[in-house]
Amino acid sequence: MKKTLLIALTLITFISTECTKYEDGPVITFRSKNNRINNTWKYESIIYVEQNSIVTENLPKIEFKLNKDGSYSDNEDSVGTWKFSGEVDLVISKSKNSTTTETKWEIIKLSKKQLWLRINKVEHHFKPV
Description:
Layout: H1 2-18, H2 33-37, E1 39-48, E2 53-55, E3 63-66, E4 71-74, E5 79-85, E6 89-96, E7 99-110, E8 115-119, E9 122-128
């Protein structure tokens, strides 16, 4: 009996870790990715992967809101849209003063309390406001 339970738990653990969309999780969640990303976010840290450097002070003061309806806004007077692209990408298109920019981020962690994005080998870690 114990052997069967151990095999089942090992199999479940293996399957759930192999099915994780995002590099750093979560492994199991009961919330949709739209519900998890729907929040106002601010910087928690920036990690420069190649330099093995973590910045936690003097971070950008930007706070941005990603709404369930796909709208984007921030405290720098930019507005726009966001969407998921593929399995692990987030595309943010924003406009400010008649200038529109589109940025494609790789999502490495998406939970209700953490949003980790990577672009150009730099990780941007956000937490809810």
